[in-house]
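Pilot study result, target chain (301 residues):
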Amino acid sequence: FYYIMAPAKFQIGYWIASTEKPFSPENDSIVPLFTHLYYAFLQVQEGTGELIIPPELEEDMRSFVNCAHDKNKKALVSIGGPKTKTDDPSSAISMMARSADKRNKFVESTLAFAKDYGFDGFELAWEYPKTKNEMRNLSNLFSGWKSSLKSSNDDTKNLLLSIAVYCKPIIPNASSNQEIKYPHELENYGQKWILGDEKDTSIGAPTIAYVGPVAYKDIPDPEGGIFDKEVTKCMYKADKTTWYGYEATSSVTEKSKWEHENEDLIDILPLQFDDAGTSREEVGDNDGHGNDDIDDDATDL
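Predicted structure:
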């Protein structure tokens, strides 16, 4: 687990890997808005347990790391990710974690990868372990991962480890003297529904169909929506029979203010869904609490 052991502000952004839209110098402007940037997602080889390094993304990953380091930011890789219609990354991770031999090969491949590409650490996005055995395997995986880092004789011993976990109001068995920080996720996309009655556009209005996620930049006039400050603390708007729920300037500013006051983390994804004109990340960063420093006292536990 990735615990922050000193009060500081952390802002995390995810860049979704794509050969169709590679990371380019045009994206330099968003890098200073974060302290940690995650390149998402790489996958695990089901047969061997090793990290898969797609040849078509090699140049893109090096550009990503170089850009982050040029601006004194941390660059990490997220492994796994959400299930899609055609693939379940967690299946390969689960198979790797249940075998000691495959766990060792996975760890060795990640350390070699970090050394080659210059990444500062990893996030394991196993979404999610479902049984007690899988939770035990997850614990064994991180124990071996950490041991390999500590025994390393080069810069890999300083790699950061983090994990994507279930959203829960409390973490069982967490010591009260640990100053744990929990990332608050702000999405650059909203959700889209078809209304049952276009005259009823309120929160909880009846719908006849759920269309799916929609990028912030594709929502018509997103700043013209209504900020539901009391219930959902999000923006919403209706466009004829289409209803959108999403984050915009008002909701991002409100949540960023709360995060800064409570010294929590902000986690924004995916970066390429942001609007080119008025950045959601920039709104969150320019609320009077700007801080681009990285806390070097962060520790993986």
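One observation from the pilot: The chain has two domains: 9-184, 189-262. A full batch analysis is planned for the follow-on phase.
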